[in-house]
Amino acid sequence: MTTAFDPIRVGRTDLKNRIVMSPMTRSRAYGPDQTPTPLMATYYAQRAGAGLIISEGIQPSTAGQGYPDTPGLHTPEQVRGWRGVTDAVHDAGGVIYAQLMHTGRIGHPDNSPTGATPVGPSPIRAAGQMFTHQGMQDFVVPEPLTSAQIEDTIADFAAAAANAIEAGFDGVELHGANGYLLHQFLSDNANKRDDDWGGSAENRARLVIETTRAVATTVGADRTALRISPANPLNDIDEAEIAGTYSHVLAALNPLGLAYLHVLESRAPEFTGVLRAAWHGALMLNPATPGGRTGPEQLALIESGATDLLSFGQLFIANPDLPARLARGLELASPDMSKAYGGDERGYTDYPALTEARSA
Ligand SMILES: Cc1cc2nc3c(=O)[nH]c(=O)nc-3n(C[C@H](O)[C@H](O)[C@H](O)COP(=O)(O)O)c2cc1C
User: Which residues form the domain of 261?
Assistant: First the structure.
C-alpha cells in the first residue's frame, strides 16, 4: 500500500515523501521593492522535510500585487533574493516550487507600489475588504483588462516563471484558485466579458489554459503545475456551474503533461473524484476540513488512492517538521493565526522542531 511517506516523482523531480507544504502568503517581503529576505530563507529551510514546499503567492508583475509586503519575481533583485531562499531549502535537502499569484481585482491602490487601480476581467467590485497599511478598506472597482493587456499578463507569467527557474526554484505552480485573477476569469460572476475571454465556459477557461501553456512552453511542462479550487466562494466568487468550465481546463491541459494538478477541495468535495478520474497526471489534494484544518486523518486519502500528494497549510506554520511528526504520530502544535500576515520572526521562524519541542 502506498503511504504519504513513500517517495514520488513529480515532473522532473523526485520527492522524498508525498506531504506538501501548501502555499501561504505571509507578507514579510520587507526587502526593498518586494524582495525576499534572509528570514524568509530560514522559514522555508526549516520546512525542508516536506516532500515539496510551495512558496507563498508571488506576484509576476507589479500589477499582480494585491496584498501588502508580498514578494515579486519580476526584477533582478527579487531573483537574487529568491536565490537565497532556494539555496537554503536545497542545502536542507528540500524541494521548492514558486507559486505565481496575480491577485486581479482582490487588491487596493494603497497596496500597489505604483498606486494603480487593480485589474480584473470586468469592472465588477468584489464584495468585501482588503488589508492595507491604512487598515481594512473596501475593494474597488477593477480596471477591465484589454485584450492586449491580457496578452501582456500571460507574458508576465511566463517571464516570472523563467525568473523562478533562474532563482533556483524546482518548478512553478500557477494560482488558479481562491478568487484571484485566473479564478476571476473562470467564474461567471466576476467575468462578464463578451469577447474571446468571457461568456461561454470555453472562453472563461481560456486565460488559465493559455497562461499554463505559455509557462509550460517557457520552463517545461514537467516543471509547471496549476492550482484550482472549483466552487470556492472565497473573494466573492460564485461559480454557478463547475463541471463544464473545469472539463475544458482539464481537457486542454491533460496533453501537456504537467507536473501536477493541485486541487483545493472547498465547497465541492464530490467534484474531487470527477477531477481525479479526468486528470491524467499526478493529483495533489488540499482537502476541505469543515470547521478545522487539514490534519493527520487525511493521510488515508493517499492510502485509498484518492490522491497522490496531500498538502497541508496551517499545520506547517506551527510544525516546521510536520512530516516527521506525522510519521511518528506525535502531537501537533497549533498556529497563532494573529501572526500569519506581516511581522517579524515571532509566529514565523520561532516554532520549534520536534527535538526542541520534546525537550521543552
Ligand atoms: C496564512 C495563509 C495564507 C495563505 N496564502 C495562500 C496563498 O498565497 N496561495 C494559495 O494558493 N493559498 C493560500 N492559502 C490557502 C492554503 O494554501 C490552504 O489551501 C488552506 O490554508 C487550507 O489548508 P489547511 O486546512 O491545511 O490550512 C493560505 C492560507 C493561510 C492560512
Answer: 8-359
